[in-house]
Design a protein that fits this description.
The chain is α+β, with helices and mostly antiparallel strands. The protein has three helices and nine strands; from the N terminus they run αβαββββαββββ. The strands form two sheets. Strands 4-5-2-3-9-8 form a six-stranded mixed β-sheet. β8 and β9 form a beta hairpin. The radius of gyration is 14 Å and the shape is globular. The two termini are 18 Å apart.
């Protein structure tokens, strides 16, 4: 992925339910400049785990996007692992909450918070 693509095409899409839930969380948080941070880091049962949090900081490695009106920040390395992913939100009694559908995951753990990249 080129630098130009990284700044114009978000690596992740959000479902309407996820947008609504994140919007409510941002409003409840109330901090100025708050955005949704999406990423991956080493750890979890499968090797990489997802990062999903509200954040008011930005590093030199971050790329900012606006996805359906939601300010989102993703570091450039995570963007490679998240390319083509969809952030969902569900209110199911069991396994409800945020979930990332990631086409780059070769294997995921049972809890859905970590994955092994495709080889």
């Amino acid at each position: 992925m080129s630098e130009a693509q990284a700044t114009t095409q978000p690596p992740v899409d959000l479902t309407d339910e996820a947008v609504e839930r994140v919007r409510r969380l941002i409003e409840k948080d109330g901090r100025e400049g708050i955005r949704l941070r999406l990423g991956v880091r080493g750890g979890g049962c499968s090797g990489l785990e997802y990062v999903l949090k509200l954040d008011d900081t930005k590093t030199p490695y971050d790329v900012e996007y606006e996805i359906k009106g939601i300010p989102v920040v993703v570091d450039a390395k995570s963007a490679l692992h998240l390319q083509g992913s969809i952030l969902e939100y569900t209110t199911q009694l069991i396994s409800g909450g945020f979930r990332i559908k990631n086409p780059n995951a070769g294997r995921t753990c049972g809890c859905g918070t970590s994955f092994t990249p495709n080889q």
